[in-house]
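Saturday, quiet lab. Running sequence design on the structure tokens for the scaffold JK sent over.
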């Protein structure tokens, strides 16, 4: 399982779609999924989380909803795909809970880790790529999207500045599982860096440009 994570507007969506295409072009069996969501029941929970007023849920309720969704996602999508020997690429996973609710919110990492152990156990993704760039640039990108899934984006720049610092802190704790990639570059450059990182980690020879269809 390979996770692409980072602040809102870091380009995870486009990079994870490119990555799926690169795996498929290489003849690998792979799926693309996302959090919150990634299974029918978890997508139901996603709608509760991403729409409405920022203060609708406090950090603890958000965390519990994220973990309810995550458990469904693991049971119904991630673990079955891994059991079929597929690569699983996920746009966000548990480090978003650590960064958003744990560190940027006021719950603390310890609370997130306790719930994580209870809900997930010791399952870990093989690699987590964190896309890093200044939150001011990232948030400006999200504004042009103009969809109604903006509950988190509206939590303000200070919150997102803490989220960015949190992801950098998490990435620094375990260099064998995490890679921090500079996402303040054009899509192809960031994509090439991601592919190179994956090739090195898994002894693959993926090409960094997805075929255009
Ligand atoms: P998305 O914009 O990547 O689809 O994610 C929706 C929001 O959910 C995003 O602002 C980050 C937030 N989020 C958390 O706060 N905690 C989590 O555990 C996850 C998976 C997402």
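Result came back. Writing it out in full:
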């Amino acid at each position: 399982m390979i996770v692409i994570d980072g602040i809102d507007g870091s380009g995870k969506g486009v990079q994870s779609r490119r990555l799926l295409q690169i795996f498929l072009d290489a003849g690998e069996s792979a799926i693309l999924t996302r959090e919150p969501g990634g299974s029918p029941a978890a997508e139901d929970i996603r709608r509760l989380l991403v729409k409405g007023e920022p203060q609708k849920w406090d950090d603890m309720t958000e965390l519990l909803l994220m973990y309810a969704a995550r458990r469904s996602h693991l049971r119904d999508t991630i673990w079955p795909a891994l059991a079929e020997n597929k690569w699983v690429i996920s746009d966000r996973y548990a480090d978003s809970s650590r960064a958003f609710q744990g560190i940027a919110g006021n719950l603390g990492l310890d609370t997130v880790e306790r719930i994580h152990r209870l809900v997930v156990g010791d399952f870990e993704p093989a690699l987590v790529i964190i896309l890093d760039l200044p939150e001011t640039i990232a948030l400006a990108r999200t504004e042009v999207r103009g969809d109604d899934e903006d509950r988190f984006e509206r939590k303000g720049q200070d919150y997102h500045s803490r989220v960015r610092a949190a992801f950098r802190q998490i990435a620094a704790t375990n260099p064998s599982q995490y890679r921090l990639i500079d996402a303040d570059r054009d899509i192809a450059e960031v994509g090439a860096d991601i592919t190179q990182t994956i090739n090195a980690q898994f002894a693959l020879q993926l090409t960094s440009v997805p075929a255009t269809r």
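Notes for JK: The chain is about 55% helix and 10% strand. Helices lie at 12-25, 40-50, 59-83, 94-104, 109-120, 135-143, 157-173, 187-202. Ask whether to fix the surface positions before the next round.
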